[in-house]
Design brief:
24-stranded antiparallel barrel; 5 helices
């Protein structure tokens, strides 16, 4: 129905409205820099840019009135990229570029009739505003680029875009990893004709190939929230296999002077922890912890990092997540600066490197860079004695990642991880690659072998994957076959669900509206997903889970999006996750006996999905996702009526303040009598006041409710379920349970640049001691912390 409605609205106004607006915005209004440098028009194909080298050190104030800006090269002729590519940009953009001996400088003139979306934002939180991204491919390999972004007030975001060919966002390109932070300067301001920003990136913050003359890839992307459009300087086809290969180039860069690249970041942390005791509330203080890190730029393209007692940067608790499928582990991202710097060199398919496995290292060292077409990442760490399975010893972790460019876009990679704790060890070796063919086709593969030695016994098992992709502008095809042996164990990586073979296919076709149409693009899709137990697959047996999803998404004028679909699924009984389940039967004489829990062999599912998002208004935005219907009730292995949803709303009453609320809910009920099996609620509220880009005060409050009823064999006998301890044989009724928790975090942060930071915070946890008999929340733990660090850049 969604597709029919969209096609009915596709007629639109066949006039070239956007082209006319772009032409009208082309002449530069008064108040901007007078350009006399060479112009490079993206739509005209002038993509090899020669920029002047000038002896100057500009004041970064967001006003482009100094002499070097008049001689800078000018990038013009932007094209729309999303949601529809191949048309001129609706609003003009000029980007001025020049370089001095120690830095490269960009001036942005974004013409916009308004209203411009601009807020005071912390680092990496600017993408609800209008913004411009500068992508620098300093290795000129069409595979990775450093990303520097600013909003109209000069607030910063930065990260790395590494093309792996696995995930694309709604704009048709892979998302930027915002974890790494780089030192650069920026300022911005609103003007009568739009907005203007100035960006200065020192060469000390970059890694690039050796050589007197440099050629770097360059792309500029502008996002306008008023329209929801994304424009690029170098024209981009959404159907190409690579976004970066379509970029332009900065050519003939010479005599770049980084000087000595040596960053020292000493760190001081202090924590005071409180908890409820029988005699009252008790506080204890940990000793002041001194640590720090050092980064040495050995060459232009190779850096060495070391750390001792790296700072704890988990200053706020992770957002709560639901575990709907008990077979799937929950993933939490890395946040520690030492492990994030250069993280693009450690990217491996299927999570074979996951640095959060290094829990709290005493010391670590890392070497990362690129030379002769080869990316190299080496990481070694000595962890604290924290995990019981490490036997009270200090685990030693060594990780090696090597990737080699093959041809223009293809790549071959190797990975090796080694974790040793006393007499136990875990080692994983693997190879992976990506082959791009014909501009829109790609073939990817991976093979890995894990050896795990524990308690005198060694197991060896494989992981393998093959992917095929077609990234056409209208027709896109993606399929994957992944196999993970049940004995495949990586203690330096993250495997969400081992012991399976999964075949996944996705087919999408996009219909584009005419200029001025209310519906700009509609994409129906069909997704198929089949999962086998690994041993069943190798034995040629039937699959366990089967899914086919019919969905569609529509992009509407002004930045609105809506979507929905129907999910047809069938799940097979998995005895492994019910090994401790038994049924308890009461005999006529009053005695009880335990019966096996066998479960219904197969459960059919039929679910409905609806989702959508609003544009980023000046003071409001929202998005939602809801799924409901007949799905599997994992608690009792029976059919269930399920509701799964999340809603997020952001309100900005003034540019300096933001209130964000999220609500996640999951409910399972029995179809027969409608009784509730389980309910989970996680509402989360974030209130932040940010008077400057460097300073903010933030409060986060999260409430979590987890409630379940007494379990029974709802699909077969109706008998109550009990749990049997396999070691002791003890029997525990699957009785009704309820838990409630509230966590509050208050954080004051001052972060003028990456590395220099002041964190002062307080966190408190409230729980109900017996949520069924006494549901009142009581404070059970709290803590204060202080973190100070300072970046000394030699």
């Amino acid at each position: 129905m969604l597709l029919t409605l969209a096609l009915a609205l596709f007629g639109g106004d066949p006039t070239a409205a956007d082209t006319a607006r772009a032409a009208a915005a082309g002449p530069a209004p008064a108040g901007h820099a007078a350009h006399r440098g060479a112009a490079f028009d993206g739509r005209a194909g002038r993509l090899d840019v020669t920029i002047p080298r000038l002896q100057a050190d500009p004041v970064v104030d967001g006003v482009l009135d100094e002499a070097p800006w008049r001689d800078a090269a000018v990038l013009t002729g932007f094209s729309r990229y999303a949601p529809v590519d191949g048309v001129p940009a609706a609003d003009s953009t000029h980007v001025l570029v020049w370089y001095s001996p120690t830095a490269i400088h960009f001036g942005i003139e974004a013409f916009d009739p308004g209203p411009v979306r601009a807020n005071v934002a912390e680092r990496d939180r600017i993408f609800a505003d209008d913004n411009v991204e500068l992508l620098l491919g300093t290795y000129n390999d069409a595979r990775q680029a450093l990303v520097f972004a600013v909003n109209p007030l000069g607030a910063q975001a930065d990260g790395v875009l590494v093309e792996s060919g696995q995930n694309r966002n709604s704009a048709g390109r892979e998302p930027v990893d915002l974890s790494p932070d780089f030192v650069f300067r920026s300022k911005g301001r609103l003007t009568p004709w739009g907005w203007q920003a100035e960006v200065s990136i020192p060469f000390k913050s970059l890694r690039y190939t050796a050589g007197e003359r440099q050629t770097w890839q360059l792309q500029v992307v502008r996002r306008t929230q008023r329209t929801g459009y994304e424009d690029s300087w170098a024209p981009v086809s959404r159907g190409a296999a690579s976004f970066l290969v379509q970029a332009g180039h900065l050519v003939a860069l010479t005599d770049l002077r980084r000087g000595i690249v040596l960053d020292l970041v000493p760190t001081v942390t202090q924590r005071v922890t409180g908890s409820a005791r029988a005699a009252g509330w008790d506080y204890w203080s940990r000793p002041v912890e001194l640590g720090g890190s050092v980064r040495w730029g050995i060459t232009n393209n190779l850096s060495l990092n070391g750390t001792v007692k790296p700072d704890f940067s988990q200053v706020e608790s992770d957002a709560g997540q639901f575990g709907f499928d008990p077979r799937q582990a929950l993933f939490f991202p890395e946040r520690r600066p030492f492990f994030l710097e250069g993280s693009e060199q450690f990217t491996v398919p299927n999570g074979l490197i996951y640095t959060r496995r290094i829990v709290q290292p005493d010391a670590a060292v890392k070497l990362a860079g690129k030379a002769f077409g080869t990316d190299v990442g080496v990481l070694s760490a000595v962890d604290q004695r924290l995990a019981p399975e490490d036997g009270g010893t200090h685990p030693v972790v060594n990780i090696l990642r090597v990737q080699r460019d093959v041809g223009r876009q293809s790549r071959l990679g190797l990975v090796w991880t080694d974790r040793v704790a006393g007499g136990d060890w875990n080692r994983v070796g693997g190879v992976d690659g990506r082959l791009v063919m014909g501009g829109i086709y790609a073939l990817q593969f991976q093979g890995a072998l894990a050896a795990d030695h524990r308690a005198g016994a060694t197991t060896t098992a494989p992981l393998w994957e093959v992917r095929g992709l077609r990234n056409g502008r209208r027709l896109a095809l993606r399929w994957r076959l992944l196999g993970i042996d049940e004995d495949f164990r990586t203690r330096s990586g993250f495997i969400g669900r081992p012991g399976i073979v999964n075949l996944n296919g996705l087919t999408t076709y996009t219909f584009f509206g005419k200029p001025g149409a209310f519906v700009e693009a509609v994409t129906p899709l069909i997704r198929t997903d089949v999962t086998w137990k690994y041993r069943a697959f190798t034995a040629g047996e039937a699959s366990q889970d089967r899914k086919i999803h019919f969905e569609g998404d529509a992009r509407l004028r002004g930045g609105w999006s809506v979507g929905g679909g129907v999910l047809v699924e069938s799940f097979g009984y998995d005895p492994d996750i019910y090994a401790n389940y038994r049924l308890q039967r009461t005999n006529p004489d009053g005695s009880t006996e335990l019966l096996p829990f066998t479960g219904t062999p197969r459960l059919p599912n039929l679910d409905w999905v609806v989702r959508g998002s609003t544009p980023q208004f000046r003071s409001f935005s929202a998005n939602f996702f809801f799924l409901w219907g007949r799905d599997e009730n994992f608690y009792e292995w029976a059919s269930g009526n399920i509701l799964f949803g999340n809603l997020a709303v952001t309100v900005r009453p003034v540019p300096q303040a933001q209130l964000t609320g999220t609500w996640n809910v999951q409910r399972v009920a029995r179809p027969g009598d409608g009784s509730e099996v389980a309910l989970q609620h996680i509402p989360r509220l974030t209130l932040q006041y940010q008077p400057t880009p460097s300073f903010f005060v933030r409060f986060i409050g999260e409430y979590a409710l987890d409630r379940s009823s007494a379990l029974r064999d709802d699909s077969r006998t109706g008998l109550p379920i009990v749990f049997v301890d396999p070691a002791t044989g003890a029997v525990t009724p699957a009785a009704a349970a309820r838990s409630e928790r509230f966590r509050g975090d208050l954080l004051l942060s001052y972060l003028p640049n990456p590395g220099t930071v002041v964190y002062v915070g307080y966190g408190s946890t409230f729980r109900a001691p017996d949520a069924i008999a006494d549901p009142r929340l009581r404070r059970t733990a709290d803590g204060f912390f202080l973190k100070l660090s300072y970046l000394f850049r030699v």
